[in-house]
Amino acid sequence: MMIREVIKINAPVETVWQVFTETGNWSDWNTVCRDCRLENGEAMAKGGCLSFALSPFIFPVRIAPVIERFIEGKIVTWSGSKWGIHARHTFLFKRVDDWTSLESVETFSGPMLWPARVAGVQTRLHELTKKLLSAIKTEAEGRAKNRNKDKAIAYETHGKM
Predict the structure, then answer these.
(1) CATH number for the domain that contains residue 136
(2) Within 13 Å of residue 123, how many CA atoms lie on the same side as its CB?
(3) Tens digits of residue pLDDT in 86-116
(4) 152 burial class (0-12, 13-18, 19+ CB within 10 angstroms)?
(5) Which residues is 85 bridged to in the sheet?
(6) Which range of residues forms the domain containing residue 31?
(7) 0.90 cut: is pTM over it?
């Protein structure tokens, strides 16, 4: 099973990357992955373990994936297993002119995959992926807009001196 989604974000890739990797701020904007924390280390990095609660249905499930791949400003891949299902989730950040393409690719395998499909887990997880990407977009575009305002104010202030 695979879930793939791409979103266009009107913000520089550096801003989108910052929003995504500052896990300490996720509670400010992220309604999909709640109660997020790093289980080891002080920043998102290869080998680190991230922990968060996800609610594919009624009850939240604590997920603790390990970061397998981390390429600054470009790629984050984490993976983990729960209840007989193994998941690998990759986020790809790409600069396109003055905006960012953020792609999410999540693959699943394991003996409990068939019952999960029957229960509608794939559909619900796809909805959560769209919601997560939308929240990243909103936060990143808001930060980019505020930075542009700050630059304009600094320019006006500097120009009047």
Answers:
(1) 3.30.530.20
(2) 5
(3) 999 999 999 999 999 999 999 999 988 777 7
(4) exposed
(5) 82
(6) 2-160
(7) no
